[in-house]
């Protein structure tokens, strides 16, 4: 593991084998980070998906509890008690659904979105700049080859000057794209740490919030209500 | 809505049109209850499924957080901090997974199983006894028809006696099956109330338990840890 922080921009113009070798280390790191980020995103989306499904499932359950009243049972004796109890449970499930919905939204905003943003912005930028740098390097190599194949005769001076200009232009282009590419790779190293931890901070804060509100909600009247319903059932 | 509690067993033998009419009311009620129970079970199974998926999703996320260390990043500078933070988060997700798993088990045992049991035992019993009662009634009708078609001549006395025995046997059989069927229908009315409320008591108790443990778990060290990680990220 090389003890370097970043690719030095002043090395970009010379483009030495040492610099190229260091560049390949940064590229490998970016590749590993891209793979890992995709897997992490997938795992986080699965958690988000489960949370979302819980919202839908509690919504359906609440509706189903209310639907008891509308069944038009042929024998309705004693049903008032069941209806009012199921109404109460439906409200409980609704309140729970509010908490689940809030958590789902929070997971989307503070866990899934930041990592999608990191992938779409930072990682995609690196990959785009890599392609541009590759193209510019190729162009530069081609113009160099063209220049070196020129005959040494004096009468070719004019052609030589022109190809020389081409080489210089290609080098400027390559230099510029390497500067941008190096910057993006350096920035990625800087962003990496935050990008890995930020979504989990969002996850944990969402859970803290969820459990706090849930504990408050259920501690209120639930215990006494539940024991009265349990009595009713055992009667 | 008839103001009756139950089918009177002493009416079963006479099998009057009034009793048949009351029976059909009980049957209609049982049919409505069967439909509603199936829908409620479906809604409850969806909640259980979402809870189960949350267990699997948190398990995968925890593993993925630990996997960061094993990525062999080409550039590992500053990674110790990321690794130890992700390890901590992985532990948090593991603890959360324990709570989710416990809730899933509780929902299975105290919400889904009781209503499955109600369907498989009580509702299926009624439906089976209905079929048996139908068969016995048919047999009785057939033997009655056979008896009524017998010629009135004196020399048929022996055949008459035999068919008469058949009718008596069929009536006994029908009487017995109607007694069982009436009992099951009466029991269903009694069980209905409990069967509807019991799963939701299980649901609510599971949630109370879940939020209580979750709030305890997250209130402990999480807040100070999170702010230190947030500081780290903003550094």
TrEMBL record, chains A, B:
<dbReference type="Pfam" id="PF16746">
    <property type="entry name" value="BAR_3"/>
</dbReference>
<feature type="domain" description="BAR">
    <location>
        <begin position="8"/>
        <end position="234"/>
    </location>
</feature>
<dbReference type="InterPro" id="IPR027267">
    <property type="entry name" value="AH/BAR_dom_sf"/>
</dbReference>
<dbReference type="InterPro" id="IPR047181">
    <property type="entry name" value="DP13A/B"/>
</dbReference>
<protein>
    <submittedName>
        <fullName>Adaptor protein, phosphotyrosine interacting with PH domain and leucine zipper 2</fullName>
    </submittedName>
</protein>
<dbReference type="GO" id="GO:0010008">
    <property type="term" value="C:endosome membrane"/>
</dbReference>
<dbReference type="GO" id="GO:0023052">
    <property type="term" value="P:signaling"/>
</dbReference>
<dbReference type="InterPro" id="IPR004148">
    <property type="entry name" value="BAR_dom"/>
</dbReference>
């Amino acid at each position: 593991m090389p003890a370097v922080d970043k690719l030095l921009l002043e090395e970009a113009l010379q483009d030495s084998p040492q610099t190229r070798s260091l560049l390949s280390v940064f590229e490998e790191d970016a590749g590993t980070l891209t793979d890992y980020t995709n897997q992490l995103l997938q795992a986080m989306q699965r958690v988000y998906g489960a949370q979302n499904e819980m919202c839908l499932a509690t919504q359906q359950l609440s509706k189903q509890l209310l639907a008891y009243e509308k069944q038009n049972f042929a024998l309705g004796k004693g049903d008032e008690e069941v209806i009012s109890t199921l109404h109460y449970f439906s409200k409980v499930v609704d309140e729970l659904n509010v908490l689940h919905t809030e958590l789902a939204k929070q997971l989307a905003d503070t866990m899934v979105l930041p990592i999608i943003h990191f992938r779409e912005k930072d990682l995609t930028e690196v990959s785009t700049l890599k392609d541009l740098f590759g193209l510019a390097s190729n162009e530069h190599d081609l113009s160099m080859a063209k220049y070196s194949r020129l005959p040494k005769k004096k009468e070719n001076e004019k052609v030589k000057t022109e190809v020389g200009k081409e080489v210089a232009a290609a080098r400027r282009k390559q230099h510029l794209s390497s500067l941008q590419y190096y910057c993006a790779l350096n920035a990625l190293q800087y962003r990496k740490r935050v990008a890995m931890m930020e979504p989990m901070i969002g996850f944990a804060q969402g859970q803290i919030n969820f459990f706090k509100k849930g504990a408050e909600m259920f501690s209120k009247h639930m215990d006494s209500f539940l024991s009265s319903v349990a009595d009713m059932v055992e009667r």
